[in-house]
Amino acid sequence: MPGGVDDPAAPSGGNTYDRRICQELPAAGWQVREHTVPGAWPQAGTAARRDLARLLAELADGTVVLLDGLVACGVPDIVGPEAGRLRLAVLVHLPLGDETGLAPALAADLDARERGTLRAVPAVVATSTWAGRRLVAHHGLDAARVHVAAPGVDLAPEAPGTDGGTRLLCVAAVTPRKGQHRLAEALAAVADLPWTCDCVGSLQQHLAHVARLRELVEEHGLQERLRLVGPRSGAALDACYAAADLLVLPSYAETYGMVVTEALARGTPVLATAVDGLPEAVGRAPDGTVPGILVPPGDRAALTAALRRWLEEPGLRRRLRDAARQRRSTLEGWDSTAKRLAGVLEQLRQEPRRAA
After folding, report:
1. Quick one: average pLDDT of 8-21?
2. pLDDT digits (tens, 9 = 90+) for 233-270
3. Residues of the chain above pLDDT 90, percent
4. Which of 67, 68, 226, 236 has its CA 20 to 30 A from that of 5?
5. How far from chain centre, in Å, is Cα 229?
6. Average pLDDT score over residue span 49-56
């Protein structure tokens, strides 16, 4: 089974998902050959498009192929003609038109391209129940062809954090969709309270937004308290989680939110926006309590109020930590994700090939 990914070296939730699936699928009975297709996807140039077309054309008839949606969804003219010959599944991490900050015409074009790709292939994989339902409704897909394989998580030792609740952590590429500018504004409004916040994530994906965020930090005099530390991985990222009391994710769009479960896997509560698949990732503890606080996306006042409550109310912090530790026990690993995906691929392999 070949799998197509965009840039496996880039630190992102989508690439983490792709890497872990490639690692876990062999244990679920699948031999995997990974192919990278360099390019500025989903708007890749002629050379990258040619490389993808050649790669697909060289695969034997009936080959089961899992394509990353960032690569596949923008090129229905390449993927569609192969859908009758190959057994294609497209993994959608985030619908292309949902990226924050796109010009309306570009968002509409990407949305139409994605619809063409997803209607052409026999199987679509979403990373949350919310995302699967949205793809069905938005693109008019057959619900039987849309499957869900939510990201897994590796359990880690419980984070010791600090004696209080003052160490905040945001793990996300600094882009408009992730909402760090709203976080900066909300933190400025609680500057009378003790806190520090590390923003961990790429600073290269949206330079204008990074520049604006730095301006906000300087404008409010938060240089020593709100730190843009760049991407972290491995032991360095583990250390960031271990030192945190609260994960904050003020996103405008998230199909799931893997960093949420990464925090919960350490017993750390979360403050996140109640948008798209984030409530699904936050989930509930076995006793029904929510291991965090959910606020409306883009609502600076609500985010500010939630931060103030967290910082000022020890009882709230204790309740949320207890719920997070309970939720930790219910999280599933990447082996469960791979088994679900393996089931989709096996069903695809056994289906009669469609006419081209």
Report:
1. 76
2. 999 999 999 999 999 999 999 999 999 999 999 999 99
3. 89
4. 236
5. 20
6. 96
Distance CA(349)–CA(204), nearest Å, equals 39
User: What is the Cα–Cα distance from 261 to 268, expressed in whole angstroms?
Assistant: 9
CA distance 349 to 239: 42
Q: 179 near 251, Cβ under 8 Å? A: yes
Pairing between β-strand 270-273 and β-strand 292-295 as defined by DSSP bridges: parallel
**Can you give the chain as a three-state secondary structure string?**
CEEEECCCCCCCHHHHHHHHHHHHHHHHCCCCEEEECCCCCCCCCHHHHHHHHHHHHCCCCCCEEEEEHHHHCCCHHHHHHHCCCCEEEEEECCCHHHCCCCCHHHHHHHHHHHHHHHHHCCEEEECCHHHHHHHHHHHCCCHHHEEECCCCCCCCCCCCCCCCCCEEEEECCCCHHHCHHHHHHHHHHCCCCCCEEEEECCCCCCHHHHHHHHHHHHHCCCCCCEEEEECCCHHHHHHHHHHCCEEEECCCCCCCCHHHHHHHCCCCCEEEECCCCHHHHHCCCCCCCCCEEEECCCCHHHHHHHHHHHHHCHHHHHHHHHHHHHHHCCCCCHHHHHHHHHHHHHHHHHCCCCCC
Cα separation, 260 vs 268, in Å, equals 9
* Distance separating alpha carbons of residues 65 and 116, to the nearest angstrom: 18
Separation in Å, CA 68 to CA 65, 294, 295 = 10, 30, 30
The predicted pLDDT at position 4 comes to 42
What span, in angstroms and rounded, lies between the C-alpha atoms of 91 and 99? 16
- Nearest CA to 25 out of 245, 301, 345 is that of 345
Neighbours of 233 (CB within 10 A): 10
Q: CB of 344 within 8 A of CB of 125?
A: yes
What are the structural domains, with CATH classification, of the chain? Answer: 2-152+333-350 (3.40.50.2000), 167-328 (3.40.50.2000)
List the structure tokens of 244: 């945190």
Check pLDDT > 50 for residue 2. no
